[in-house]
Design a protein that fits this description.
The structure is a single chain. By secondary structure, this protein is mainly beta. The radius of gyration is 18 Å and the shape is elongated.
């Protein structure tokens, strides 16, 4: 599944970079740029014995960039991000972890014409959670999880036009999701690949 996602992402990257538009570079006179982002996550939890980015979820939010320089534009986001893991992608899973977060990423961005490269950290607060094993809810397992998460994010946004772009990024927790080791499991971390459309105002 991961190979298919990588191939699709590469095809999308080639299509975007091949888009012929000479005036894509925008000479910004503004101090702030607002962008709306919407798309999806392909998530997994390292340490839960379920391999593969099989858990789909929404990722929507908004971003404010500060135009310090034409190339250097740090930003802050507010997003709703559905993470977790699943034993399968297409069929009804036997094991499903649902971890939905309200997230605030703070990013450093380098802008070069139609591409913006980004890296930063994000704080997330758990707002919805559920663990289902063979159709049964397991609230006792949820008690083992922290209510917050801190993660590292890296990615890029490729602009096809002055306003419309595609955002691709990778994210990983930097701290253990578990409050304490449980049932022989020392640690778990969120990992996900995000693909979103970006509309810049």
């Amino acid at each position: 599944m991961l190979k298919k996602m990588i191939i699709c992402s590469l095809c999308l990257f080639i299509a975007v970079m091949g888009y012929s538009q000479d005036d894509i570079e925008e000479k910004e006179s503004r101090t702030f740029i607002f962008t709306v982002l919407g798309g999806g996550n392909f998530a997994q939890i390292d340490g839960d014995s379920l391999a593969g980015y099989h858990k789909p979820g929404f990722n929507v939010g908004g971003r404010v960039q500060i135009v310090v320089h034409k190339n250097f534009q740090p930003s802050i986001e507010i997003a709703y991000s559905q993470k977790g893991s699943s034993s399968t992608f297409f069929k009804k899973p036997e094991i499903l972890f649902v971890l939905d977060y309200a997230q605030i990423p703070v990013m450093l961005n380098y802008v070069d014409r139609r591409v913006m490269f980004s890296a930063g950290m994000a704080y997330a607060q758990l707002i919805r959670s559920k663990v289902t094993i063979r159709g049964n809810d397991e609230p006792a397992i949820l008690d083992q999880y922290k209510k917050s998460d801190i993660s590292f994010i890296a990615g890029a946004t490729f602009f096809m036009t002055k306003n419309l772009g595609v955002n691709l990024r990778w994210e990983r927790s930097v701290a253990n999701l578990l409050k304490a080791p449980a049932q022989g499991i020392d640690s778990q971390v969120n990992k996900l690949i995000t693909l979103r459309a970006a509309w810049k105002f």
